Amino acid sequence: MEANKLNSQESAEKPKEELPVLTVNDGRTGQTKKIPITAGRAVAASALKSIKEKGQPGLVSYDPGYTNTAVCTSAICEIKGSKGELSYRGYDIIELVNNSTFVEVAYLLIYGKLPDKDQLGLWTTNIMRHSFVHQNLLTLMGNFRYDAHPMGMLIASISAMGTFYPEANPALQGSDLFQRDIALRNRQIFRILGKMPTIAANSYRHRIGRAYNQPSQPREPSPLSYTENFLYMLDHLSEKNFKPHPVFVKALDKIWILHAEHSLNCSTATMRQLASTLVDPYSCVAGASAALYGPLHGGANEAVLRMLERIGKVENVPKFIEEVKVKKTKLFGFGHRIYKNYDPRAKILKDIAYEVFEVTGTNPLLSIALELEKAALTDQYFIDRKLYPNVDFYSGLIYQAMGFPTDMFPVLFSIPRAAGWLAHWCESLDDKETKIYRPKQIYSGKKPGLKYVPVEKRAKEAKNPQQYEHSAFFRRRELGTRSKL
């Protein structure tokens, strides 16, 4: 007891360690401000508000694209871009790809540590048990156009899925629903991870005019794994005991580990921004998936394929390299905002590509890709700009070799990334510093004070900003309407 009191007194008497500061000299006012540096490398953006001229608002940081802005603290994923290193919860990505499975990595991301044997078994069972989707959702998916993009179907279906579970909607059950009911939070995680592959497979089958497959029933002694079940739902026709090729299963599982999480990228930032409103997780995942749908994010590997197809053959690589250097054409699959070294995921994908090509036969584009990589890594132009292959450079080649159409690429990206999104959703809910996202803007419009002019007195505009291309149907009708015959 006395010892505890003594320790308590010593703790109280010990002075707090002072934070290092950033000293800012304001050249406009001559004032000097000291701003604390937290976490060794960050200053609070709100501290800039104290730097201001008399009668004027304080400074704000201007950062389009959040290129150097941290909006949260996170323990999920660390990227050391200058070294080309990536880790999930302290585990190096290579360690996980070589030893773990996607389902186990999903548990690690969401709960912060690897599961024991019983936890892993229960986790797997809970996810697979929730892989079946409501018949009404199947009906909804069946009503999409025959040529609907599978990513559009995925986004709409996930969003619609939220309407099936009113008990999981904070707008109906209270804004703190998922902070006070962890069991309910877990159930939504099982549902989303379980149903994402089913919805994705249905989207694929819809495009090729095939009936949707139900998830595989558990088989003893070896039930299908998570990735195996996804491939089963894609390809099963009428065979008994159909099983996908083990090389494809292994390759897809490794790729999904690589794609599961990558810090605060655009789609994950979208997930956290939506989560900050305390909206339901289905809306969050649908919004994050929509961000991933963009060609600058989840569609980048398709751009790599198109580039390799344009190059055509190995002999054309030197010419292509020179055109890139003089900015006559664009180089896809190289460079990354974070990595200033070889993307570790690209190294792993290169090995996976060889494993897949042993089964499918070599993709003729692989030779072009290898020659392009070799040329870029030895050319001083690319070395100076730190342009190394990224995750998109080889993933598209692998997916193409496995028979996936290019419009399925972002879908294949979304399934595993849902694990990372959900990890950030949970972390955001538990973070006491989380606030609803509300970035500032710098207004660049006209000054207030304009007077309203009635429409009949306004001058005619020389150019109408509402120009658009009419359809052939509209033009044909217009010609018929104007005809005097």
Please provide a written account of the structure.
The structure is a single chain. The protein has 485 residues and is mainly alpha-helical. The N and C termini lie far apart (107 Å). It contains 21 helices and six strands. Helix 11 packs antiparallel against helix 16 and helix 16 packs parallel to helix 19. The strands form two sheets. A three-stranded antiparallel beta sheet has the order 1-2-3, with no helix packed on it. A three-stranded antiparallel beta sheet has the order 4-5-6. 50% of the residues lie in helices and 5% in strands. A hairpin with a 2-residue loop joins strand 5 and strand 6.
Features:
485 residues; mainly alpha; 21 helices; 50% helix; 5% strand
Give the topology, please.
Blueprint: H1 2-13, E1 21-25, E2 32-38, E3 42-43, E4 77-80, E5 85-88, E6 91-92, H2 93-99, H3 102-111, H4 117-129, H5 135-142, H6 150-161, H7 170-173, H8 177-180, H9 182-207, H10 226-235, H11 246-259, H12 266-275, H13 281-293, H14 300-311, H15 317-325, H16 344-360, H17 364-378, H18 380-384, H19 392-401, H20 409-430, H21 472-482
Antiparallel strand pairs: 1-2, 2-3, 4-5, 5-6
Helix pairs in contact: 2-11, 3-20, 4-9, 6-9, 6-13, 9-10, 9-20, 10-11, 11-16, 12-13, 12-20, 13-20, 14-19, 16-19
**Average of per-residue pLDDT values:** 90
Strand order of the largest sheet: 1-2-3
Question: Distance between termini?
Answer: 107 Å
The rough form would be described as globular
Calculate Rg over CA atoms.
Answer: 27 Å
Instruction: State the helix count.
Output: 21
Strand element count: 6
Report the uncertain regions: 1-12
Q: How is the biggest beta sheet arranged? A: 3 strands, antiparallel
H and E order: HEEEEEEHHHHHHHHHHHHHHHHHHHH
How much strand?
under 5%
**SSE-based structural type:** mainly alpha
Helix residue percentage: 40-55%
